Amino acid sequence: MSRKSSTTESASAAHVTNGAQAGPPVGLPVDLSVDLAPKNKRHLRLANPIMIASGTLGYDGYGRGLTPEMDLGRLGAVIPKTVTRLPREGNLEPRWYPESFRRSLEAGESIMLNSIGLANPGVESALSDLAPKWQEWGTTILLSLSADSPAQFGEMAAMSRGVLGFQALELNLSCPNIESGALFSHSGQLTSQAVSAVKAVTDLPVLVKLAPNVPDITEIAMAAVEAGADALTISNTLPAMKIDLKTRKPVLGAVTGGLSGEGLRPVSLALVYHASRAVDVPIIGVGGIFTGEHALEYILAGATAVQIGSANLADLWSPFRILDELTSLVAQEGVSSLGELTGAVESEVRA
Ligand SMILES: Cc1cc2nc3c(=O)[nH]c(=O)nc-3n(C[C@H](O)[C@H](O)[C@H](O)COP(=O)(O)O)c2cc1C
After folding, report:
1. How many angstroms does the Cα of residue 17 sit away from the middle of ligand 1?
2. Which of 142, 141, 211, 148 is CA-nearest to residue 177?
């Protein structure tokens, strides 16, 4: 990982050469910068819209496997793996299917499942041991939090106050509220309670990450925004299962897990499209982004930024390649700033 610091200005001025294509003259910078918290006093200005999704920053979610050549300062932001109030061991093995996301991609396999069970060192260790190191990464970092109750979300956000090493929070609402057993992000009311509890104690920008399997994403999105969410991340993984016919056993130790990757992309894309038309905060699209084209698809659907998840686990260089691909594509679209493409899908319903 890089210890170099990089400024928003230097990284956002991504120079492209777009040959004879329509677009800005060769060599002119394309402005890829985005603000994920335009209504927050602090703002959350990123040099470009490419972020690393929580749980996929290196093989352990906290950077394992990244090399010094992988300059995180080139990316918009990274999100280390979600932390909970207390440390968690995680689920029974196997926690992945298939064992190698890289080989499965090469084989044209589109199912990627995981059931990690939020293995993490706990928020206290994250704040005291990990966050000081994040300061050296030279990029924007978001602290991802998950909790058992709205009050515990508030408690954890309060603990994070004044700690250096991250510039915003992301609330992972794909976790159950222990009082009812329901996932926070399956209920507008629980979503609202969790977001309110956090917003009451922090002035950091707060991104709220939603689950995909809800009847109406706009209801949950609106509840989050009314409670003060600065931006929404859509989406987490989709509940899923696979059985090995030879052993008749589920391939995951926890029996069921979450579907990410190719299969999730069209699902999440539709959710981003609908949510972005229902609320007026930035949406961060996540699910199955492996190329610059996939990232652009989300942006056209209404995303202001995107997160790369499973693609990292197939190849830790993915977000850098996707950034380069997106930079070229944006220039080829004949625009000088990415914002011109956000939500630009031509989607009038045909009669
Ligand atoms: C191995 C693995 C671990 C994950 N861990 C977390 C996590 O700790 N917190 C979280 O909010 N999302 C977690 N996710 C979900 C991703 O951040 C992302 O929302 C999801 O995988 C969809 O994106 P993708 O299709 O690009 O992977 C995890 C995903 C994977 C594959």
Report:
1. 34
2. 148
Q: Is the CB of 289 under 6 A from ligand 1?
A: yes
In this structure, is residue 270 part of a structural domain?
yes
Q: Which domain holds residue 205?
A: 8-92+101-237+260-341
In a domain, 27, yes or no: yes
CATH of the domain at 306: 3.20.20.70
End-to-end C-alpha distance for the chain, whole angstroms: 52
Identity of residue 324: D
Q: Is 52 exposed, middle or buried (0-12, 13-18, 19+ CB in 10 A)?
A: buried
Nearest CA to ligand 1 atom 28: 55
Interacting residues of 25 by C-beta distance below 8 A, sequence separation 6+: none
What is the predicted pLDDT for the residue at 110? 84
Q: How many domains does the chain have?
A: 1
Task: Characterize 146-177 residue by residue with b for buried, 16 or more Cβ atoms within 10 angstroms of its Cβ, and e for exposed.
Answer: bbbbbebbbbbbebbeeeebbbbbbbbbbbeb
- pLDDT-based confidence at residue 350 (cuts at 50, 70, 90): low
Say if strands 249-250 and 243-244 run parallel, antiparallel, or are unpaired.
antiparallel
In a domain, 87, yes or no: yes
175 tagged catalytic: yes
CB 319 less than 6 A from any atom of ligand 1: no
- The alpha carbon of 151 and the centre of ligand 1 are apart by a number of angstroms equal to 24
338: left (phi over 0), alpha (psi -120 to 50) or beta: alpha
Q: Is residue 192 part of a domain?
A: yes
Query: HSE-up of 177 (CA within 13 Å, CB side)?
Result: 20
- Residue 28 has what pLDDT? 61
Over residues 93-128, the pLDDT tens digits come to: 999 999 899 988 898 888 999 999 999 999 999 999
